[in-house]
Design goal:
Structural class: mainly alpha
Largest sheet: none
Helix content: over 70%
Order of helices and strands: HH
Low-confidence stretches: none
Strand content: under 5%
Mean pLDDT: 92
Number of strands: 0
Distance between the termini: 20 Å
Length: about 60
């Protein structure tokens, strides 16, 4: 997967799931800044592992 494709896919995932993930994180930690950090870390992990995703889940 090319770098540009990874970036586009990550952007799509962030747009589609970012708000939901932020609300979920906030529901656990009850602090906005910590929730934002958790979401950012999640997307960083997603970006680094996206090439190994097997597309076997829904």
């Amino acid at each position: 997967m090319k770098e540009n494709e990874r970036e586009q896919l990550l952007e799509k995932v962030m747009m589609e799931y970012g708000d939901q993930l932020a609300r979920l994180a906030y529901s656990y930690v009850k602090e906005e800044e910590i929730a934002k950090d958790l979401v950012q870390n999640t997307f960083i992990k997603c970006y680094t592992k996206i090439t190994s995703f097997r597309h076997e889940s829904t």
